[in-house]
Amino acid sequence: LLLGWHHAWGEEGLASTANFDAPIISPNGKKVIFSSDLTGNSTIWIADNNGGNAHPLVNWVGTNQVSPDWSVDGESIVFSSNRESTNYDIWNMSVNGVRAIRLTANSGDNRQPRYSPDGSKIVFTSNRTGKDELWYMSSDGSNQKAIGLQSLLVNDPAWSPDGNKIAYVGCLRPANGEAITDGVCNLYSISLDASVTKQLTSGKANDWSPDWGRLGIVFSSSRKGGQSIWMVDGAGGNLKQITDGADGLNLDPRWDRLTDKIVFSKVGETPNIWSTDIFGQQEQLTSLSGKNTDGYVVS
Q1: Strand order of the sheet with strand 31-36?
Q2: 191 beta partners
Q3: Strand pairing partners for 80?
Q4: Which residues fall within 8 angstroms of residue 235, CB to CB, at 6 or more apart?
Q5: What gap in Å lies between CA 175 and CA 140, rounded to an integer?
Q6: Which of 21, 69, 132, 255 could form a disulfide with 213 if both were Cys (CB 3.0 to 4.6 A apart)?
Q7: Are 254 and 285 in contact (CB under 8 A)?
Q8: Which long-range contacts (CB under 8 A, 24 or more apart) does 10-14 make?
Q9: Which helix (H) or strand (E) holds 230?
Q10: With contact defined as beta carbons under 8 Å apart, do 103 and 78 qualify?
Q11: What is the DSSP letter of 9?
């Protein structure tokens, strides 16, 4: 999660609040994956689409796994991990956990992988040039290419439905000594050859985590205070607020391609994975609570 929300740990290693990040519904609509630190380190979890049968999918002790995404056929996932490295690399793993392949290996951090709509490519961010940039590669890890070096701080890439453009977060550099959240972050789109770039949102807000579906681009924004879910069309028009964030921070929205509902993570009074329709009617999907590094509770 780009914002780096911190959750306090109390006595005896008990988590006062666990992280639930980057939830994504499977292509067949039956499962949801997300990253969570319920058992200590952050790792990838899987559950039924209603939150049942939740359990860790990746069990790499002492390492972190974040930013998962489903392959188009639903047979594997891609994610970022610091396994076998002091940095983060992109990994692919079969959904049954029997095969794991490291797709990047360089001196930089490689994060936020997303499969293209046809499954042939993966877009991701990498700081191998000295700052975070947009990159893409073939789904087997070959042909890694930068998508135009930019002056903006860039993060959170997401493919357009036709696979020809990438929506992303571009942040103006904050003043010296200030955190990235003190700057201004808006949404942009760019073609794969970097020949066409367009600013999609504007204003002194922090817009994060876009996901581009057939109805438009959903994202999390601070433009009304806190963090709530918003939507804009692919040309930057028809800006619309979907959730009000009254009961906590609403983060990491992703389209459920089958139902046109939006799954997202919530931080605050009722943390966990939630869903909403485009009219803001919400439903809680998971009911997980952090306990300690030896286990978790499904309530």
Answers
A1: 20-25, 31-36, 43-48, 55-56
A2: 165
A3: 66, 90
A4: 198, 200
A5: 39
A6: 255
A7: no
A8: 12/292, 13/292, 13/293, 14/290, 14/291, 14/292
A9: strand 228-232
A10: yes
A11: B
| Under 8 Å between Cβ of 187 and 204 | no
Backbone angles phi, psi at 19, to 5 degrees: -85, 140
The pLDDT, as a whole number, for residue 271 is 82
pLDDT score for 182:
63
Amino acid making up residue 254: R
- How far is the C-alpha of 64 from the C-alpha of 40, rounded, in Å? 9
**Could you give the C-alpha distances from 213 to 167, 218, 262, in angstroms and in order?**
11, 8, 10
pLDDT under 50: residue ranges of the chain: 1-16, 291-299
> Tens of pLDDT along 41-100?
999 999 999 889 999 999 899 999 999 999 999 999 999 999 998 899 999 999 988 899
**DSSP symbols for 243-292:** ---TTEEEEEEEE-TTT--EEEEEEESS-EEEEE-TT--EEE---EEEEE
